[in-house]
Every structure is written in C-alpha cells, then in structure tokens.
Amino acid sequence: MKLHHFFQRAAGAALATALLAAAPLSQAHEYKLGQLEIGHPYARATVPGQPAAGAYLSIENKGATADRLVGVSSPAAKSGEIHTMAMEGNVMKMREVDGGLEVKPGQKIAMQPGNGYHIMLMGLSKPLQAGDKVPATLTFEKAGKVEVTFNVEDGKAAAAGKDGMKDMKEHMHH
Ligand SMILES: [Cu+2]
C-alpha cells in the first residue's frame, strides 16, 4: 500500500515536471545563450513594396561581463541592422549602432517600437504577414551565435504607447 502511494506520487511529480519543462518551449518564446537571455523576438508585419521591417526582442545579461549583439541575419532579408533612434536637431532619426549593441552585466535591453533600439530587416524577399515565423541568427561578440524565430505580429497590435503596455502584459503572462 505504501509502495503504491509512493509510485503514484512519483508519477505525479514526473508529470508536473514534464509540464513545467514543456511550458516555456510552447509559450515563452525565449532563448538562452550562455549568460544571455533573449526574450520574445517579433517583427512588424509589412505592406507589399515595403523594403524593410522593424524587429524587436529583449536581451538580458545575467553574466559578469559585457557582451555585444554585433549581427542579425535572416534568410527572409538581404541584411539585418541594429538601429538606434536619436534626435538630430528637431528630427528623430534612426541610424545603425556603431560596433554593435552593448549589454552590460545585469542589464536588460527591451527593444520596442518607437523608442531606442530596434533591428531592421532590410531588403525583404517578400512582405511579412502576421502569423509568419521568420528564422534569424543573432551573433554576439563573446557568446557567439543563436538561432531565433521572429514572430510576425500585426503592426497595430505592436504599436507603441498603450499597446506597448499590452505587449508588456503579454510578456508577464508568460
Ligand atoms: Cu531602423
């Protein structure tokens, strides 16, 4: 009788562990590379003729040394660039980040539409539609390469401002 209970509990525990292990893979859409955690890569849907798409993700550095995102490539685009937005006079302009995007120890950079850093997928081979999955390779100076998938999301849903909050809630939901 005791033994029977033991096995029931053991089976229950194994099942719970299996469920916990499976959940991040199906929902969280996160990647780990050494001490770096990459969260929820997504790209904005584009209209036909639009040559480039904005793409976003978060990078958290849990290590003790700084690293840099130095490259993004995807079979869906001719090239990937890491951009930052900055005021030039009275005009907000974007430009490529020199020497890659540094992530300091303990720092988390969360890219989002309309502020700061973002990735541009330049020279799209075809328009990106909501629901598409775009494979890409991120290259870090020290940690090396990691394959990720950019989920293509409707531009309206991913817009800045209050929709940015919605996006954050979805992250917390994970
Ligand atoms: Cu840009």
UniProtKB/TrEMBL annotation:
Pfam families: PCuAC. Residues 1-28 form the signal peptide. Keywords: Signal. Transmembrane segments: none annotated. InterPro entries: LpqE-like, Lxx211020-like, PCuAC_sf. It comes from the Bacteria. The keyword Repeat does not apply. This is Copper chaperone PCu(A)C. It comes from Herbaspirillum seropedicae (strain SmR1).
